[in-house]
Write a structure and sequence with these properties.
Number of domains: 2
Radius of gyration: 36 Å
Structural class: alpha+beta
Distance between the termini: 32 Å
Number of strands: 15
């Protein structure tokens, strides 16, 4: 570069930057606003994509009518069968179809009240939907059992933290078992400690504790557990009076790892002196494995060999141990429950998990062909999700375009204002033989340097703001509101640089098209 060009660059760059860098900092603020708008837009889209891919959002439940008419049942069954066809899965963009039920049950509250929980019961627990429910991000503090617990024969449940709190459990020590209140009127005659004179608490293992469940369910389990609970309410599995030998002699307990030693001491204190030498602590058999929970521990069984012990003594021993640990679920009595199959009730749901919601309206029309009515509110909500996602993408592009236009206008105004101050000097340069192209190259270089510095400073400030928001607790479901480092940001920065070059070339070409005399003597 020629010496006078270097001098021009050094002197005039200061003027372009402005007094105390005012022009530079104003440009930085505009770029920060630009990058923050891009980051907010991308963060919103990222969160929307997460919600759209979330089984909690993409899960549609279609209820079967309770009408017993065989024609209606046949129509529903035909619709269900059509959902399993691969061509329909591709056409309407869904991946999985599950059969589930919705039912409320009376559960025990630690505050001594009965509480009704609404649960969803599935045919299988080992499905993509349930695996997503049990994703590490949704599981609370690692409260999830290993994969062997989630079988079709499991008698455990999955609950939310809100359900645990509702039942009176401490959020800092989440339960490994919760209690189903089995109807046992008259059970006090055989030594049972009944609640409200008719309920006996039966421990059900907690397979996992999660932040949330689909459709805001309070608990989730398999249909086999539903069959057992329903069977208990109708016939006998939880009727302790009718199954005295089966249940009262079952001294089996879940004991958490940290309670192993204390449990033995409590057991011995509960035994009469005549039984202490006859007592054996054994590992429970395979029929108790369906009663394991998420908490590490063992299910052990108390055996007295051939000793003849009155049934009431079994109950006294069990009550002593249960009462000692009544404030905790680290030790609780479990039973080898009846595993008979019963007929599943007619009322059920078909749960369809979509890949995306783009075809939800088409799927609604498909269901209408079978006279299946989906909940319109649920469909409209999902259509709104699709619309919001598309609007977010449009808004992102509009914000980037608006910001670039504002920056271009700022550069144009800055150059025009600057040119009015120095055009006599520039006219002198031109009079001494410096051509317009050389001057344009100098101003392009100056503006590129200024814009690059402004872009780097703006990115650093925007990045600092992005990192500060989570520290202040400003986030949603673990997602920050800003996502700066994205392709859109890099493209926007590149467009700003290109737009700067084009703007400088066009503006300065027009301004420098005047003769040296017109510039020096300010003639129009």
């Amino acid at each position: 570069m020629k010496q006078y060009q270097k001098l021009l660059l050094q002197r005039e760059a200061r003027e372009l930057i402005g007094r105390r860098g005012s022009h530079l900092w104003l440009l930085v603020l505009m770029l920060v606003a630009t990058f923050l708008s891009i980051a907010f837009s991308e963060g919103s889209q990222k969160y929307l994509r997460f919600r759209m891919a979330d089984p909690f959002t993409n899960w549609v439940s279609i209820a079967k009518s309770n009408d017993d008419a065989s024609a209606d049942n046949e129509t529903f069954n035909n619709f269900r069968d059509s959902l399993y066809l691969e061509e329909n899965k591709i056409r309407y963009d869904y991946r999985d179809v599950l059969i589930s039920m919705k039912q409320s049950f009376t559960m025990g509250n630690l505050n001594g009240r009965n509480d009704f929980l609404t649960g969803r019961f599935f045919e299988h627990l080992n499905t993509p939907l349930i695996r997503k429910v049990l994703n590490e991000d949704n599981v609370v503090n690692g409260c999830k059992g290993d994969s062997t617990l989630f079988t079709d024969e499991a008698l455990g449940i999955i609950i939310t933290t809100k359900t645990a709190e509702r039942l009176g459990y401490d959020i800092d020590h989440l339960p490994s078992y919760i209690y189903y209140w089995a109807h046992n009127e008259g059970g006090d005659s055989i030594g049972l400690n009944l609640v409200d004179g008719k309920f006996y608490p039966v421990a059900l293992p907690v397979l996992a504790i999660v932040h949330r469940l689909p459709n805001n369910a309070q608990m989730l389990a398999n249909i086999h557990l539903f069959e057992q609970l329903r069977n208990g309410s109708m016939t006998a599995p939880f009727d302790f009076a009718a199954h005295r030998d089966d249940y009262q002699k079952q001294l089996a307990f879940f004991v958490a790892e940290e309670e192993q030693d204390s449990f033995k001491k409590v057991l011995m204190s509960a035994l009469p002196d005549t039984l202490q030498n006859k007592c054996q602590i054994l590992e429970a058999g395979d029929n108790y494995q369906v009663m394991r929970s998420w908490r590490p521990g063992s299910i052990i069984q108390i055996d007295f060999g051939d000793a003849s012990i009155p049934l009431l003594n079994y109950q006294i021993i069990a009550n002593t141990i249960v009462n000692h640990y009544k404030e905790s679920s680290d030790v609780c009595q479990v039973y080898s429950l009846d595993t008979r199959k019963v007929e599943t009730p007619r009322s059920m749901f078909l749960s369809v998990e979509f890949n995306t919601l783009n075809k939800i309206h088409d799927f609604e029309e498909f269901a209408n062909r079978y006279h299946i009515q989906m909940e319109l509110e649920q469909v409209r909500t999902m259509e709104n999700f699709v619309a919001v996602t598309q609007m977010a993408a449009i808004l992102s592009g509009a914000m980037v375009l608006f910001s670039i236009i504002c920056i271009i206008m700022f550069i144009v105004n800055m150059l025009q204002s600057y040119f009015q101050k120095v055009k006599r000097n520039i006219g002198t340069f031109k009079a001494f033989g410096m051509n317009g192209r050389e001057l344009i190259n100098v101003y392009v270089l100056m503006l590129i340097m200024i814009v690059c510095v402004a872009v780097l400073l703006a990115l650093m400030l925007a990045w600092a703001i992005q990192g500060l928001l989570p520290l202040l607790g400003i986030e949603k479901d673990g997602f920050g509101y800003l996502s700066l480092w994205h392709t859109t940001t890099y493209i926007a920065a590149a467009i700003i640089l290109v737009a700067t070059i084009c703007t400088v070339v066009l503006v300065m070409t027009r301004l420098l098209s005047q003769t040296p005399g017109n510039l020096i003597y300010d003639r129009n």
